[in-house]
Design brief:
With 322 residues, the protein is an alpha/beta fold. It has 14 helices and seven strands. It has three domains: 148 residues, no CATH class; 79 residues, no CATH class; 84 residues, no CATH class. The chain has a five-stranded mixed beta sheet with strand order 1-2-3-4-7, with helices on both faces.
Length: 322
């Protein structure tokens, strides 16, 4: 059950970052601008960071890789994992680069609740285990940001709707007033799934604060808007409610809502593949496959890569046809 819950939050954060990477750059890497996504499946490894974003530092005019990691709960191994990601990312970029350059990588962890009590910055490794600094092997610096140190105004000031679901995790954000404001704004937007993300973060925050009465209130509030959530593709994707209950009508609505954004993304990024994308997407009747396709296409770095993704989805989609 715990792993299923973690997967739910992983899906949420990946979707938020993929939808608006500039929002998370503004939050974690001020004065930088989004350039493009990089695939987050690291070569020759089973490791998969939450996101890998190529960005431009406005002050220096130089490119770097931003590697944000989102933590729902304290993790005593996060520093070591970030160090591993950084080495793999730098190596992978150099191998794929024609000029064989070592690109700077900036790692950051965003804690939705709090950092582990033993988190060490910089991460210090000694070659022989000595603590006197005489046999240093590594000093690894990374950003560590706790949402509870941010105020709701800090998030609202950045003016990104994709950051609104994080409001309940901010300092004083787990209040009825803030959550109601968040829900009202997100439910009135064109992206109802953002409201569901906000519900997830609110539940996580109340659980962390051990506010059981507030969890009951949130569940009652949720039931009042469950019908609107249920038509969100993300709701189906993260909870798989439709599959367990076998509701073909609800999934058909979710599929229809999900198809158009996928096609629009292809039209914006790879216009020559638009007709092919329409054909492939129109024949996919599996919601999880369609969501996965949308994420993969959003991360594609070339027309050739996007075409290969569509070809594989076309083959997979045929298996889901009635």
């Amino acid at each position: 059950m715990e792993k299923k819950q973690e997967k739910k939050y992983d899906n949420m954060m990946s979707a938020l970052i993929g939808r608006n990477p500039q929002a998370f750059l503004d939050l974690l890497y001020p004065r930088s601008r989004f350039v493009k996504h990089h695939r987050n499946k690291l070569a020759n490894s089973q490791r998969q960071p939450d996101a890998v974003i190529e960005a431009l530092c406005i002050e220096t005019g130089k490119l770097f890789l931003a590697q944000p990691e989102i933590q729902t709960n304290p993790d005593e191994e996060i520093a070591e994992r970030l160090a591993l990601y950084q080495v793999l990312l730098r190596w992978d970029y150099r191998q794929r680069s024609e000029s064989k350059v070592w690109i700077p990588v900036s790692s950051a962890v965003l804690h939705l609740t709090k950092a582990h009590k033993d988190l060490q910055i910089p991460l210090y490794w000694a070659a022989t285990g000595r603590d006197d600094g005489m046999d240093k092997a590594l000093d690894f610096y990374f950003k560590s940001v706790e949402m509870r140190d941010k105020t709701p105004e800090d998030i609202l000031r950045l003016d990104h709707l994709e950051l609104w679901p994080l409001l309940p995790a901010t300092q004083g954000g787990a209040s009825h007033e803030i959550i109601e404001m968040m829900m009202e704004r997100l439910l009135d937007s064109d992206n109802v799934e953002l409201a569901y993300y906000g519900y997830l973060v609110a539940g996580l925050t109340f659980k962390f604060l051990r506010q059981l009465d507030e969890i009951d209130w949130l569940e009652r509030r949720y039931k009042m808007i469950d019908e609107k959530f249920s038509v969100s593709p993300v709701y189906q994707w993260t909870l798989e409610k439709g599959r367990e209950e076998g509701i073909a009508i609800g999934e058909a609505k979710a599929l229809e809502q999900m198809r158009q954004p996928v096609i629009e993304n292809v039209f914006d990024q790879f216009p020559s593949l638009t007709n092919f994308a329409k054909e492939v997407v129109g024949r996919i009747n599996d919601l999880s496959l369609l969501c996965s396709l949308g994420i993969k296409l959003a991360r594609a770095q070339s027309t050739e890569e996007a075409e290969q993704i569509l070809l594989k989805a076309q083959l997979a989609g045929k298996e889901t046809l009635p």
